[in-house]
Amino acid sequence: MPHPSARHRTLVLSGSLRIGAVTTQVALAALAQGHPGHEVALATGLDQLPLFNEDLDTDPALPVVAGLRAQVAAADSVLVLSPVNNASISAALKNALDWLSRPRGNAPLSGKPATGMVVGYRAHSSEDHLTAILRATGALTTPAPIPVLSPRGVNGDPAAQDPNVTTAVSQALAALRLPDPAAV
Hints:
Blueprint: E1 8-14, H1 22-32, E2 38-42, H2 63-74, E3 77-83, H3 91-100, E4 113-119, H4 126-137, E5 140-141, E6 148-149, H5 163-176
Parallel strand pairs: 1-2, 1-3, 3-4, 4-5, 4-6
Organism: Streptomyces liangshanensis
GO molecular function: FMN binding; oxidoreductase activity
InterPro entries: Flavoprotein-like_sf, FMN_Rdtase-like_dom, NAD(P)H-dep_reductase
């Protein structure tokens, strides 16, 4: 039985490297959703990862790779957010997921509950691409109740204050929380 003060920790991976991007605003909305018993943190270092190259996938891992892997390993679940880029997820996010799918047999995403959401005017089935990639990494995918968020719904206000965004993020985080064994 978990200790009463045990917390569920969700790590948010934002596939947008631009500070003011709507996807980044959605990530910040997720951070604002944390509450007692559920900590939400934003992953760092995605902007510093080299392009995935098996020649660089060494033991010990490059420091930036090791740092990202440690962040994911320390989380209980992962919320993955991506802008829609050319009918798919962002290259930065795909690169990070490639690094997180290694080392084979001991990857930090393997067996980790994860869900993904995409942010774009048209999804072009990018939410399906994201789910397929998460499954390929070994993550245990949980469908996001609202897998696509449109920037049109934000209306110029920060996403953290938009009720459509906060509802979608809240539902995604709730889907990731593990049931309390004491309640079963």
